[in-house]
């Protein structure tokens, strides 16, 4: 029996070896050199210039409110505070995008809750220092402008952040995309709040806040779409 099978090898070993060799050749032909994934901190550094542009674009291009009355703390001080918060959210998104290096669920929840809390705090402080309301008869116009333009300013940040995050093949692409959109919205609002003439919480939360929320939804949808297409 041993002589018939050849050197004591089990039946079919030659065919199996041939299959393994063909699979090895197919895999070898498919291998391509890839660019190493940058660490989350380095990818965040790549986004800082566009994040700065999102924060200063609105007050420079559209003008700004009464800086002399508000003072440096309520203008650039609070905007810098909100801008840093947006950058930290972006750092969480980029880190959570890397499989095996994500942050804890509590930290993610704290990030999702902390973002609107920061916007609320900045809004209350601004309104306390300079209470301004929407002029009569233009409520919808103000609302529309304060939803449209922050989203337009945040769009480039979301685009670049999503591309960098999705390159890491996140296991939870929807959450990562939502965090990217949330950070883009907060970064844009840090500058838009200086261009908007109204500080009333009802207007700010009902328009600026809506813009931030919509950016998070858009980021989530975009990330899920990219993940489906890639798979």
Describe the fold and architecture.
Helices cover 78% and strands 0% of the residues. The chain is an all-alpha fold and 231 residues long. The chain has two domains: 1-32; 40-230, no CATH class. Helix 3 (40-61) runs parallel beside helix 7 (173-195) and helix 4 (67-96) packs antiparallel against helix 5. The longest helix is centred in the middle third of the chain and has 30 residues, at 67-96.
Task: Please specify the SSE layout and strand pairing.
Layout: H1 2-5, H2 13-30, H3 40-61, H4 67-96, H5 105-129, H6 139-166, H7 173-195, H8 201-230
Q: Span between N and C termini?
A: 49 Å
Summed over residues and divided by their number, the pLDDT gives a mean of: 88
Question: Which term fits the overall shape?
Answer: elongated
Counting helices, strands and paired strands, the structural category is mainly alpha
What structural keywords apply?
disordered N terminus; 2 domains; mainly alpha; 0% strand; 8 helices; 231 residues
Would you kindly provide a brief summary of this structure?
With 231 residues, the chain is mostly helical. It has helices spanning 2-5, 13-30, 40-61, 67-96, 105-129, 139-166, 173-195, 201-230.
């Amino acid at each position: 029996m041993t002589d018939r099978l050849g050197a004591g090898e089990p039946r079919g070993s030659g065919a199996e070896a041939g299959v393994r060799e063909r699979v090895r050749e197919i895999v070898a032909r498919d291998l391509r050199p890839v660019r190493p994934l940058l660490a989350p901190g380095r990818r965040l550094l790549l986004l800082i210039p566009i994040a700065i542009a999102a924060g200063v674009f609105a007050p420079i291009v559209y003008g700004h409110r009464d800086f002399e009355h508000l003072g440096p703390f309520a203008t650039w001080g609070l905007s810098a505070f909100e801008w840093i918060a947006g950058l930290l959210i972006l750092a969480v998104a980029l880190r959570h995008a890397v499989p095996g290096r994500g942050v804890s669920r509590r930290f993610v929840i704290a990030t999702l809750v902390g973002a609107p809390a920061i916007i609320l705090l900045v809004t209350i402080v601004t309104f306390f220092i300079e209470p301004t309301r929407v002029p009569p008869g233009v409520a919808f116009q103000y609302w529309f402008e304060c939803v449209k333009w922050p989203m337009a300013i945040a769009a480039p940040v979301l685009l670049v952040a999503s591309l960098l995050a999705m390159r890491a093949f996140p296991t939870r692409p929807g959450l990562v995309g939502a965090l990217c959109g949330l950070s883009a919205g907060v970064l844009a609002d840090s500058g838009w709040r200086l261009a908007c003439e109204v500080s009333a919480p009802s207007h700010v939360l009902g328009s600026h806040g809506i813009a931030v929320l919509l950016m998070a939804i858009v980021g989530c949808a975009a990330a899920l779409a990219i993940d489906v297409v890639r798979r």
